[in-house]
Structures are given as C-alpha cells and as structure tokens.
C-alpha cells in the first residue's frame, strides 16, 4: 500500500510540474471540476486519428542531438582542423534557446524544424563558404519528447518518442505490465494541455484483442501512462483525494 501511495504521489507531481515552464501551476486553469474520465473506444480513436500520419515528420526539439556531416570539402576541413575527406561535426545539442552552433555559420535556430529543413538551411548558409556543399543531417539522440510510464509495470521510467510514433500498446510493452499485481481494466493516459484541464483517458486491456485498439491510440509528449494496481476502484476518486488543494477534482462513481 505504501508503494501505491508513492506511485500515485509521483503521478500527481508529474501532472503539476508539466503545467508550464518554470514548473508553476496556474490555479485559474484548475477552477472547477476536472472532466470525467474518457473511455478509449474505437470511435474515440477514429476521431483522434483523423489527422494522424503513419510516418509523421519529426520536428527537432530542445536537447535533441544532431549529427551533421559535410562530404568531401577541404575548405571546411581547415575550419574543423580535420584532414579527412568526410567532415563530421558530432554532438550538436539543441540548446534551450532552440539553436545549435555550427562552424563558420554560428548559431542557427533549428527548433520546430524537420531534418530536411535543417539540411536545406545549413546548405544555404555553407554555400557562402564552399561550393555546392553536400550535407547530411540526422538525429543521433532523441531527448525532447518524452512519456512517463508508471504504476504496475516492471520497468517504470521515462521513455523518449523518436521519429516513430509511440502508441499506448508500445508503452505497455516498454514498461512491461506486471500481470500479477496490475488491474489491466484500468490503464490510464493522463494528457496535459497548455491552457485546458488535463484529460484522463481510460483503457480496458483485460482481453488480448482489445490491445489492438491500444496500438492505434498514439501518445503525445508529456503523457503519463499509469497502470493501476488491482484493488483501486476508481482513479477519479484517487485524484480527488490526493490533489484537493489544486482543485483537480474528478467526478466519483
């Protein structure tokens, strides 16, 4: 029971600290009652996936690490003090400002841009110094988009979303549901919005065939996936008990 309280408290902390930059909560956001828990159904998934793309274009974010390679140019070799034919600048971390630093060019704003957009931008700027630069750009490390998987799982931790979308099914496989202690009828996704109240989605994963639906429910950055322990009758009741001061009150059954 002590473990359950700690887990719930951690979930509550994630909800609150995800509110805004600086980890401060605007109490006006939480005036009134939270919306009821939303059941994940085929109709809901269909509605949410209206604009979903199977291969979405990844947009670079803060703390992502980019790998940039400029092929076969001796002019850039002098800049990098590198005599090799294939020039490479590793570990270009996207700073909190949304910029990276690249030799000759200086600081470049890359946040919110795709890899192809960054490649074109670098090509344009390097063209002032070298003729017809051949550049490749990739994300070597993903850090900017994360989801938190917790509760009755064997591997509770924070996972990153890469250029491949992460579904609720992916999350449960990554976390590894502990079937001995989990209530698979109560799998929750807590989704925070910038100005609106958080939404809590509930999924019933009791049967194997329903997990196919979880594979179509795609997670968003900062989502919290919580697998409830057996014996907890209502997530809404838990939320209303642990967060009364924040006015995060959910309707009880």
TrEMBL record:
Predominant cellular place of this UniProt entry's protein? membrane
Q: Which UniProt keywords apply?
A: Cell outer membrane, Ion transport, Lipoprotein, Membrane, Palmitate, Polysaccharide transport, Porin, Signal, Sugar transport, Transmembrane, Transmembrane beta strand, Transport
Instruction: Give the Polysaccharide export protein N-terminal domain ranges.
Output: 54-139
Q: Give all residue intervals belonging to the SLBB domain.
A: 145-227
Q: What's its membrane topology?
A: Multi-pass membrane protein
Which positions, given as ranges, span the membrane? none
- Which PROSITE patterns did the record assign? PROKAR_LIPOPROTEIN
Record GO cellular component, one term: cell outer membrane
InterPro entries attached to this UniProt entry: Poly_export (IPR049712), Poly_export_N (IPR003715), SLBB_dom (IPR054765)
Q: Look up the signal peptide feature and give its range.
A: 1-24
* GO BP terms: monoatomic ion transport
Which Pfam families would you find in this protein's record?
Answer: Poly_export, SLBB_2
Compartments in which it is found? Cell outer membrane
Question: What GO molecular function terms would the record report?
Answer: polysaccharide transmembrane transporter activity; porin activity
| Family per similarity comment | Belongs to the BexD/CtrA/VexA family.
- For this entry, the protein name equals Polysaccharide export outer membrane protein
